[in-house]
């Protein structure tokens, strides 16, 4: 069964798995826990979980509707559970659906930030800012188009530095990409919506 996940679903599964600490199949994680961990609304967390249930990644048990469970065939997303069950570990972030973009920049950002052990949420904030810059660029904003070129280059430099083993330089390039995206978003959206 081939599974593909949206970025939000992959982040949800990753966070859920990190909170499943006991023997395979056990869970005491609730929607409210996930909403708090991911810094999203409870309704958003419910929507993501419902989507994961439809995709067969998560499971609802009749008498435990409030508890979130990983479907047994998806124990492969849990490092310890996959070992215990003889399954090959799969990082849920590697199952993000292919976007229409050529290089799937968001996936590359998530992978880099994970390999560099950036603080929780940094990857999501960076990916969101880059998406905003990308959308502005697609709408014909020249400033955003230039910024997007710089961001793509910085991500590429970070990947190359990481491959070469230069972690500090890779981190520096990622932080620079974040700064370019942040400044571009703030500059483009400064004062919009105010009359």
Number of domains: 2
* Beta-strand content bin: under 5%
CATH class of the largest domain: Mainly Alpha
Using only CA atoms, what is the Rg? Answer: 19 Å
Major β-sheet annotation: 2 strands, antiparallel
Give the topology, please:
Elements: H1 7-19, H2 31-38, H3 42-54, E1 58-59, E2 69-70, H4 79-84, H5 105-115, H6 122-138, H7 142-163, H8 167-189
Antiparallel strand pairs: 1-2
Give a verbal description of the structure.
- This protein is an all-alpha fold and 195 residues long.
- The chain folds into 2 domains: 7-95, Orthogonal Bundle (Arc Repressor Mutant, subunit A), CATH 1.10.10; 105-189, no CATH class.
- Helices cover 58% and strands 2% of the residues.
- It has 8 helices and 2 strands; from the N terminus they run H-H-H-E-E-H-H-H-H-H.
- It has helices at 7-19, 31-38, 42-54, 79-84, 105-115, 122-138, 142-163, 167-189; strands at residues 58-59, 69-70.
- It has a two-stranded antiparallel ribbon.
- The model has no long low-confidence stretch (mean pLDDT 85).
Summarize the structure.
This protein is 58% helix and 2% strand.
Key traits:
mainly alpha; Arc Repressor Mutant, subunit A; 2 domains; two-stranded antiparallel sheet
């Amino acid at each position: 069964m081939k599974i593909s996940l949206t970025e939000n679903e992959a982040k949800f599964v990753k966070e859920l798995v990190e909170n499943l600490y006991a023997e395979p199949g056990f869970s005491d994680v609730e929607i409210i826990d996930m909403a708090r961990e991911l810094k999203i609304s409870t309704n958003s967390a419910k929507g993501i979980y419902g989507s994961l249930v439809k995709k067969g990644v998560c499971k609802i048990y009749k008498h435990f509707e409030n508890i979130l469970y990983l479907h047994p065939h998806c124990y492969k997303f849990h490092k310890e559970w996959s070992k215990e069950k003889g399954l090959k570990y799969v990082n849920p972030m590697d199952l993000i659906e292919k976007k229409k973009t050529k290089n799937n920049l968001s996936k590359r950002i998530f992978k880099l930030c994970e390999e560099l052990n950036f603080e929780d949420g940094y990857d999501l904030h960076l990916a969101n800012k880059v998406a905003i810059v990308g959308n502005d660029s697609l709408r014909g904003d020249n400033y955003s188009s230039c910024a997007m070129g710089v961001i793509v280059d910085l991500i590429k430099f970070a990947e190359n530095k990481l491959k070469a083993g230069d972690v500090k330089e890779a981190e520096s390039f990622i932080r620079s990409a974040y700064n370019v995206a942040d400044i571009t978003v703030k500059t483009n959206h400064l004062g919009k919506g105010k009359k």
